[in-house]
Each structure stands twice: as structure tokens, then as C-alpha cells.
Amino acid sequence: MKAIWNIALLLTMAAATACGNRQTTTTVTFEKAKASKQVQLSGGQEAPTCTVELNVDYATDGNNAETAKAINDAIQLNLFNMKGLSMQQAVDSFASQYTHDYLRDLKPLYEQDSDDELKRAWYEYNYSIDTQTLEGWNGDVVVYLITQDYYEGGAHGISQQLTMNFDKLSGRQLQLKDVFVPGYEARLTELLLKKLMQHVDVSTMEELRDKGYLFSMDMFPTENFMLGEDHITFIYNVYEIAAYAMGSTELEVEYDEVEDLMKK
């Protein structure tokens, strides 16, 4: 079951041309590519299932096909490790491959465990992706937010947020090195550590570690960031700087706090 859903998001991009102050306006629209697939490990009514739900924004050609292609190529590679397909082809292909691998790898094991009701939950798999686009920094950036949830056996599932930031004019994905001047790492790390301590409401590293943060790792500026309208949000998913029980951590840095570190 699949469909392409139009959404009324219109991103207007303006760039000064070489001819005086004349502005060239380019628009890019976003639509949804969806795929939904479920398979069952055996024919029994109570047999475990694998469910895949994908809801992915992609840029349409609009007035700038090259920008849309750059954005979509990056999204497709990041989410599905694919390239050269339409986004609808990519979500369909991923859903089919994921469920195919589930049946291939787990069906023989389940046939051995099917009489053990306690083990049934081990075989209930699910994988979902949902995305949205947000207006970003100075109106020049598209923030692409990905919510990914999956359970593949084990003690618990994983839920995480992943981000991508696109220059509206070129469609190029922005990394920290594109936003900050060379040598930014030490000062940004120090600021993020300060923000983390404020977030957890502690004043020492010992207290921070006692709360389950940075127990076996050091603070770092993550590439998982959002260039929002008013501030930069750095998102750390489970296990990156804290134990699973702490969940994800979002740290907000105002632009004026890092103004001297940012490229002009």
C-alpha cells in the first residue's frame, strides 16, 4: 500500500545576482513518498510480524531541478543507502528488502522457538521513518528532521531523531565545517558541556557522571544539529552521551553565543 501525498510546503529562495541588487527567486516544493508493508513469520494467526512504515518528504523539481536533485540524493543516501532512484522507488525498495531479510533470517529460528510463548516477542519487528521540513536560519536553510523508530528484538526498541540542513539555493547539505570557522571545535565543545550541565542541573563533572552522562565518553559537537530560525539545536540520541534510560538530549545554543565562531 503506497501513495504520494502532496504537502503545501513552498520554500522560497532568494540570492543576489552579479547584476547589482537584483534578486533571483527560486521555489522548491516538497511532497511525501509513503510505503507500508507487513509480513508474518508463519501462517498462524498468532505468528510474529514485521511492519515497515515509511513517510518521507522529498523535494520536487519546482523551478530548480538541480537543487531538488541535490536534496533528494542526500536524503536517499542517508536514509536508505541508495541513489539513482525516485524517492517512491527508494521507499518501496527499502520496505521490500527489509521484510525480505526479516523472513530469510528469522523464519528458520522462529520455527525452532514457536512453541515457546516467552520468545515470541523477540520476533516482533518494526521499523518506521517519519520526516518533516522546517524553515531554518535566516530563511536560507531547510531543516530536514527525521524521526526513526525500530525494534529488532532485544530488551527495547530504539527511537532517534536525525537531522539534515540544506542550503536552499544549491541544495547542498551543510556540515558544522560549513557553519563554523576552522578551529571552532574546542570552544564549541566547552559551550556544549556548559549547556549540558545546565540541562541536567549540575555544577561538576562528577555530578554529571553520577546522573548517567559522559560516563565513558567525552563531550563533542555532534553533526546531528538543526540550524533553526533563532538558535542551533544539537541532538544527542541514546547512548551517544548518556545511558539509554536518560533518553535523547537536546542542547540549544543561541546564535549570538557563537557569533564569533560562525562564518560570515
> What percent of residues are in strands?
25-35%
Report the uncertain regions. 1-26
What structural category arises from helix and sheet content? alpha+beta
Radius of gyration: 22 Å
- Strand order, largest beta sheet: 1-2-3-4-5-6
Q: What does the average pLDDT come to?
A: 88
Q: SSE order, as H and E?
A: EEEHHEEEHHHEEE
Oligomerization category of the chains in this entry = single chain
Number of helices: 5
Q: Could you give the distance between the termini?
A: 47 Å
Shape, principal axes of CA atoms: flat
Compute the number of strand runs. 9
Describe the 3D structure.
- With 264 residues, this protein is α+β, with helices and mostly antiparallel strands.
- The chain is built from five helices and nine strands; from the N terminus they run E-E-E-H-H-E-E-E-H-H-H-E-E-E.
- The chain has helices spanning 65-80, 87-113, 176-179, 185-200, 205-210; strands at residues 2-16, 23-40, 49-59, 125-135, 141-152, 158-167, 225-227, 231-236, 249-254.
- The strands form two sheets. Strands 1-2-3-4-5-6 form a six-stranded mixed sheet, covered by helices on one side.
- It is flat and about 65 Å long.
- It starts with a strand and ends in a 10-residue tail after the last strand.
Detail the topology: elements first, then pairings.
Elements: E1 2-16, E2 23-40, E3 49-59, H1 65-80, H2 87-113, E4 125-135, E5 141-152, E6 158-167, H3 176-179, H4 185-200, H5 205-210, E7 225-227, E8 231-236, E9 249-254
Parallel strand pairs: 3-4
Antiparallel strand pairs: 1-2, 2-3, 4-5, 5-6, 7-8, 8-9
